[in-house]
């Protein structure tokens, strides 16, 4: 039976339109920040608890330490697969499933009876890594290219804070309630983010039915793009510079500069503080400038800072700030680089944005770690601040070269075809 009441009919139509509008509205940036921050928080939140976890399960510390290194590897693999799945099935279902698995895995870790069960659930926790790529793609699909880079810049400030406060927060929970409480809190945070996503994260990608064979074709299309490689290599070399610093700074500080562990922790915090500043600058200015311009300026900024540090080192200046002050430029440069480069990667093939985000993230992580490992071999033989700065400058220079390649390729792509 249909209603003849015009007031009731009008009210129903308005309600339906309001519901449709709410579903089509883009999610708040705060929601996307929380979603992506949750994907990086578990990486090092358990670091203070590793000795106690090993003691509880009577396991070798090296085995328990796999919960950090192994977690990173599994995350990289998940990002590759999840990005492609989000292109095929949509952003919303991939994010909701990833967060749901994370909640179950966190509860499993909290109540694990032995080390084997604990490691299995810890590996399952890495499913949350899919949300980082999903958040990037949703930002891009709900804003223009310049607006996307700007919003990613602001979001990056939150992403930087999460790993900074993670160990502190985890250590506090461990000290007050024991290490299992860390995973209970992760499950609670995951539940809160899941509720937000159910309410706000509506589908932003058009539905597309692709055969399984197209998964491999998608990877091939991206890997055949020079622009994809240039943007990704710029990010990988930028991360490599950071990894070289993280691995070599404690050695240089102890042998050449001297000082306590607390002092070292304070000064190493200048780099993530620089990243937050760089991300803020990206949020302010990326929308007004070309992506390649931002990348080149960011990499020049980092190289200049490292050159100043190298000059001070060669002059015999051994002050702590003479080393860590210039190294702060690594964080500022990376904070500017990541939003612009991530936006560029997603613009290579908009129809494969999810695949591009996941593949690029995995390549960035693996490439940065490889650069850091290679530099570590050289630093082990020459334990000097001078050698550390040279290694960082070499990696930063490669990132600058990749940024120049981006500028050339983007300019060529914009030239009209005659």
TrEMBL record:
Keywords: Cell membrane, Membrane, Transmembrane, Transmembrane helix. Pfam families: MFS_1 (PF07690). SUPFAM superfamilies: MFS general substrate transporter (SSF103473). PANTHER family: CHLORAMPHENICOL EFFLUX PUMP RV0191, PURINE EFFLUX PUMP PBUE. Resistance to tetracycline by an active tetracycline efflux. This is an energy-dependent process that decreases the accumulation of the antibiotic in whole cells. This protein functions as a metal-tetracycline/H(+) antiporter. Belongs to the major facilitator superfamily. TCR/Tet family. This is Multidrug effflux MFS transporter. It comes from Rhizobium calliandrae.
């Amino acid at each position: 039976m249909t209603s003849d009441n015009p007031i009731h009919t009008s009210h129903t139509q308005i309600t339906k339109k309001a519901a449709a509008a709410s579903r089509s509205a883009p999610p708040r940036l705060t929601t996307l920040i929380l979603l992506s921050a949750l994907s990086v928080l578990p990486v090092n939140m358990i670091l203070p608890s590793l000795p106690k976890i090993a003691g509880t399960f009577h396991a070798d510390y090296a085995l328990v330490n796999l919960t950090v290194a192994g977690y990173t590897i599994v995350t990289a693999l998940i990002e590759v697969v999840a990005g492609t799945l989000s292109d095929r099935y949509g952003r919303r279902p991939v994010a909701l499933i990833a967060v749901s698995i994370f909640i179950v895995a966190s509860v499993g870790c909290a109540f694990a009876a032995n080390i084997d069960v604990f490691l299995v659930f810890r590996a399952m926790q890495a499913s949350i890594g899919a949300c980082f790529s999903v958040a990037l793609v949703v930002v891009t699909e709900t804003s223009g290219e310049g607006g996307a880079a700007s919003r990613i810049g602001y979001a990056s400030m939150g992403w930087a804070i999460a790993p900074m406060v993670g160990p502190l927060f985890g250590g506090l929970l461990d000290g007050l309630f024991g290490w299992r409480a860390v995973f209970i809190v992760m499950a609670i945070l995951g539940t809160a983010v899941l509720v937000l996503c159910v309410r706000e994260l509506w589908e932003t990608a058009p539905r597309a039915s692709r055969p399984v064979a197209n998964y491999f074709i998608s990877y091939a299309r991206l890997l055949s793009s020079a622009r994809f490689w240039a943007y990704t290599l710029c990010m990988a070399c930028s991360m490599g510079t950071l990894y070289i610093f993280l691995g070599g700074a404690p050695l240089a500080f102890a042998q050449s500069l001297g000082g306590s562990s607390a002092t070292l922790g304070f000064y190493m915090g200048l780099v993530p503080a620089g990243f937050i500043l760089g991300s803020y600058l990206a949020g302010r200015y990326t929308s007004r400038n070309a992506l390649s311009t931002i990348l080149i300026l960011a990499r020049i900024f980092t190289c200049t800072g490292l050159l100043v540090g190298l000059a001070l080192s060669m002059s015999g200046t051994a002050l702590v700030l003479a080393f860590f002050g210039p190294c702060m430029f690594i964080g500022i440069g990376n904070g500017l680089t990541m939003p612009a480069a991530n936006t560029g990667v997603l613009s290579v093939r908009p129809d494969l944005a999810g695949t591009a985000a996941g593949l690029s993230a995995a390549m960035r992580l693996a490439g940065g770690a490889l650069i850091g490992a290679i530099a570590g071999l050289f630093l082990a033989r020459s334990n000097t601040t001078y050698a550390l700065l040279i290694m960082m400058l070499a990696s930063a220079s490669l990132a600058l070269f990749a940024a120049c390649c981006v500028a050339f390729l983007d300019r060529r792509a914009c030239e009209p075809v005659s």
